[in-house]
Every structure is written in structure tokens, then in C-alpha cells.
Specification:
The chain contains six helices and twelve strands. By secondary structure, the chain is an alpha+beta fold. The strands form four sheets. A four-stranded mixed β-sheet has the order 8-7-6-9, covered by helices on one side. It has a three-stranded antiparallel β-sheet with strand order 2-4-3. β11 and β12 form a beta hairpin. The radius of gyration is 23 Å and the shape is elongated.
Length: about 250
Amino acid sequence: FLDSLRAGPPPPKVALLPDALFFTRALPVAAGATAAEAVAQVELALEAISPFPLAQLYYGWLWAPGTERAFAFASYRRRFTSEQTAQWQDAELVLPAFAAVFGANVEPATTLILASPECLTAVHWDAGPGPAQVLCRPLAPEATDEDRARARDELVRAFGGSKSVIDLTAPPAADPALTDREIVFRSGDFVARLPAAVAAALDVRDKDELAVFRRARRRDLILWRVALGCAAALALLAAGEIARLGGLQWQ
């Protein structure tokens, strides 16, 4: 019981979506904008650059309070089948695979390469907070190692040079965290930590449905903690009763 308490919450169920289905943009945000104002500016910009209305998009964004840049991504909803979206029902987080590395602590001018069977994705950080660009190169099913190496070099050159290049051979996977206030992704020695509030904005699902889902999750978390407290209290009462009976027997 004590080990389960010390272990913290289990890793969340996360659905990582194909990178090639999303377009990405770095968007300006007005200086001094509040969180609500930043969201409104991001959604307005997405609707302006997309050929589809916002209601027909799955989208998310990364924005740090006080900064003048947000990084957004979106995809047309009809690119996903009903079978795919049905698998999202119990997921705590649904986002493109490249967004899982946004919480990495990297130096400026760093490019991170994510490899998958169908494409190579490059995430590039400049001197500002958060990623500056994300590029995806589709790969044919019969692509050779030479084809993959060529695509990787093209992606790195597209950013005008990088001081550091990190290659991930496997997509990041959700890792157990010490607290429910953050979501941790790991791929080998690479670790990315996303605060829960930041991760919530990256989720691409319908925003109204997400609000309902998160309220239900907060309620379940409170009930879980109450249940753990009751179990601990019962364990202490049982230990006290055993001690009392042992004392009486000794007397």
C-alpha cells in the first residue's frame, strides 16, 4: 500500500497521432496578452490560414504566458475515421507525435528528429521559447536506409543549420510522473516534461467535450484520493485493534 502511494499516479493513456496529417505554424501573440486573449488570437489565426472552418479542425497549440509567439497545429477532421476517434474516448491526451517533445529542455538551435515507418519529422528550436518550426518528410514503404538518411539531411538543412541534432529512433511514450501536475514523455535517455495545463492546450479534441472530460477526471481524482485516505484510516484502525487485543492478551 505504501509503495503504491510513493509510486505516484500511473502513466496516462496518450494517443499519438501521425505527424503527416497536421500542418503547423508559429503565430504571433500580442505583448501582455492574457491566456484567454492568446487563445482567441491563436484560434482566429488558425481560421484565417486554414481552408476549413475551425469547427472542422482538430487543433492544439503551445503558448507560454508572457511570450509573443505561439506554436499551433491543426488537421482536417475528416482525415480521421470514426474507428480512430472512438479510440480517443478513454485517452487523457490526444496529440500529434511531434507535440510530445515540446516539453524538452534543449539548447537554442537544436533540431530533434523523430523517425516513424511512414515519415521523418524534425522539430527545431531557435532562441525563443518553444519550437520554431516542425517539418515532416513522408517516406515510401520501400524506402531504404539511404533514402532515410537523405531525408534527414534535407530536414536539418531546411532550418539553416543546427548546433545540435538529436535523433530519436522510437516515438516518445508516456512515463509515470511523480505528480499529476505534469505529463512526462520518454524515448531512451530523452525526456520531455509538459505541465498539465500546457498539455491540455495541446490536446486536439473538441474543446467543449474536453472541458466535460476534464471535469469528470478531476471528480474521479478527488474520489480516488478520498478512497485512499479511507483505506489508510481503516489500516490504522485495524493495526490499533490488533495492538489492543495483543495488549489484552499479554496482560
